[in-house]
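Usage

Read records sequentially. Each one opens with the input sequence:
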Amino acid sequence: MTNEEIFEKNINLAHANVHKYKNIGIEKEDLTQICYIGLWKAVKTFKEEKGYKLSSYVYKVIANEIYMYLRKNKGHQYDMNFSEEIRENLTLGDVIMDEKDVITEIEEKIELQRYIKNIYARVKDEKQKKIFHMYLQGHKQQEIANTVKCSQAQVSRVLKKMKELY
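and closes with the structure output:
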């Protein structure tokens, strides 16, 4: 199975984490993207021979991605108040490691965005595009159905068809 297929098969784990962490102060769109990034990282780095279940590994990587995001944001605010003494003690290695982490994260975001854009470009029907867009934002199928004025079963069928095709 390809990484893309594994990603699609486990996307509900990302949505479960979006729902779990919805009240921690991160906007839903941002939280959804963070969870997708975590899922993508998990899919790319999973090693079956270590004896873990993929779903357990995905859950931990997504949670870690959320914690890293929170640390970065809180750390960023804290960085503004760094004293001169702390700044002087930063090493070149600290700075380089941070840049590598940022570059890796950006590359993973770009790869994920390309994958999602590729799927979105293949969808011709506007109603299906709306369903896919809302699904990627983490909306429940019933919410999507209410918005696009169709049944939850129709939304489920459209999403299933999209997963099979792409």
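Summary fields computed downstream for this record:
- Residues 75-98 have pLDDT under 50 and may be disordered.
- The two ends are 13 Å apart (CA to CA).
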